[in-house]
Design a protein that fits this description.
By secondary structure, this protein is an alpha/beta fold. The protein folds into two domains: 173 residues, 3-Layer(aba) Sandwich (Rossmann fold); 122 residues, 3-Layer(aba) Sandwich (Rossmann fold). The chain is built from nine helices and 15 strands. Strands 5-9-4-1-2-3-10 form a seven-stranded parallel beta sheet, sandwiched between helices. The chain has a five-stranded parallel beta sheet with strand order 12-11-13-14-15. Strands 6-7-8 form a three-stranded antiparallel beta sheet, with no helix packed on it. Helix 5 packs parallel to helix 9.
Length: 332
C-alpha cells in the first residue's frame, strides 16, 4: 500500500448491525481520541444506510460516515460476513494507503481485526492502551506480563488495532458527509446460530466501578446466578473468565481477559478464578482485587489485596443474604 501523509484519516470500522450490545461505537470514539486535531475520523459502517446510525456515529466523533452495504449481508450481522465487507471496502481506491483502522473492543472486534490483517496483509496491533501517530510510524502501547508491565511497538505499515474508548459526549453536535457504497463481491455463508437467554441483565462491564467475576471454579451455570445477584446487590457488573465463557456459563460479552474485555473498575471480585496471565491482562493495574478461591496456592492471591481461601458456596449465600438484609433495612 502506498504511504499517506501523517495527517491521513483514521478509519473506524463499526459493525453497527450487531446491535446495541456490540458497543460498535467504541471504535469511533477511540479513533476520535487518537485523532484530536491532527487527523479526521472516517467511520465505515457495514450495513444499509440509517439516519439513526449516522447520527450516533457523528456524535461519537466521526467527521465522515461511509455506509458499506451488500444485498447478501445478514441481519443480525455475521462476523465472517462483516469481515469480508470491511475487507472489500478497504480495498476500494478511496482507502488506498490508509495508515490505521480501529475495530471495536472485545472478542468480536479481535476476530474481525485479526481476519482483516490476514486478508489484507497488514499489521495486527491488537488491544492497545494508547496509540499515537507521527512521521516515524504508528506507536502503540500494549500490556505485557499479565498486564503488570507495558511495551511500545512501532508499525511502519497499515495497521489494525483496538483501543479502550473514552466516554462519548452525548451533547456533542457534529455533522459530516455521508457516503453510500454498494459492495458486490462474494460474502461467506453466515454461521448457523442458536439463541439462549442467559438471564443476565445487570450493568455493562464498560465503565463499571465494581465487577464480580467468576471462573472455572464456579463449576456450572447455577453459580453464576448467585454471582449475578451479588453483582446486582453491590451495584456492579457481572464478568467471567475464558473457561467460564467457553463452558457457556456466562455470555461472551461478559468475558474479561486478554481475549475478552479490558476493565478498570475500582474493585474486582474474582470468584473461583485461578489468576492466569491471560485473565490478569484484562484488569487495570490500579484495580483492587478481592479473591475467593478454595485453592490457597492459586495465582490470583498474588494480585489480590484481600483474599479468602474458601469454597465460594460457603461465602456467597451468606454475603448475599447480609446485603439483602441491609438493603431491606435501608428502606424502613
Amino acid at each position: 500500500m502506498a504511504d499517506r501523509t501523517v495527517n491521513s484519516p483514521i478509519l473506524a470500522l463499526a459493525p453497527f448491525t450487531f446491535g446495541e450490545n456490540s458497543d460498535w461505537l467504541s471504535s469511533i470514539a477511540a479513533a476520535r481520541s487518537i485523532a484530536q486535531t491532527n487527523h479526521s475520523v472516517e467511520a465505515i459502517l457495514a450495513g444499509s444506510a440509517s439516519t439513526e446510525a449516522a447520527d450516533a456515529a457523528f456524535a461519537a466523533g466521526a467527521d465522515k460516515v461511509w455506509f458499506a452495504s451488500h444485498p447478501n449481508l445478514e441481519i443480525p450481522a455475521d462476523p465472517g460476513q462483516i469481515t469480508e465487507a470491511f475487507a472489500q471496502t478497504l480495498a476500494l481506491p478511496a482507502f488506498t494507503g490508509f495508515r490505521l483502522a480501529l475495530v471495536p473492543l472485545g472478542p468480536i472486534g479481535d476476530l474481525i481485526g485479526a481476519s482483516l490483517a490476514q486478508r489484507l496483509d497488514i499489521a495486527m496491533l491488537g488491544f492497545c492502551s494508547a496509540i499515537t501517530l507521527d512521521d516515524s510510524g504508528i506507536h502503540a502501547k500494549r500490556a505485557s506480563h499479565g498486564g503488570r508491565a507495558g511495551i511500545t511497538v512501532t508499525s511502519n505499515t497499515a495497521s489494525v488495532a483496538s483501543l479502550r474508548a473514552p466516554k462519548i459526549d452525548d451533547t456533542a453536535v457534529r455533522r459530516g458527509l455521508v457516503t453510500r457504497i454498494t459492495l458486490t463481491g462474494d460474502l461467506p455463508a453466515p454461521m448457523s446460530l442458536s439463541l439462549q437467554d442467559s438471564g443476565v441483565q445487570n450493568a455493562s462491564l464498560e465503565g463499571a466501578r465494581l465487577i464480580v467475576s467468576g471462573g472455572r471454579g464456579i463449576g456450572g451455570p447455577e453459580g453464576f446466578i448467585q454471582l449475578n445477584e451479588l453483582a446486582a446487590s453491590l451495584g456492579g457488573a457481572l464478568g467471567g473468565s475464558l473457561p467460564s465463557v467457553d463452558a457457556g456459563w456466562v455470555p461472551v460479552f461478559r468475558q474479561v481477559g486478554q481475549s475478552g474485555k479490558f476493565v478498570t473498575p475500582d474493585i474486582y471480585v474474582a470468584v473461583g478464578i485461578s489468576g492466569t496471565p491471560q485473565h490478569m491482562a484484562g484488569i487495570g493495574l490500579h484495580t483492587r482485587i478481592v479473591a475467593i478461591n478454595k485453592d490457597a496456592e492459586a495465582d490470583i492471591f498474588r494480585f489480590a489485596e484481600l483474599g479468602v481461601v474458601a469454597d465460594w458456596q460457603d461465602i456467597l449465600p451468606a454475603l448475599i443474604e447480609k446485603l439483602n438484609q441491609k438493603g431491606e433495612a435501608s428502606k424502613i
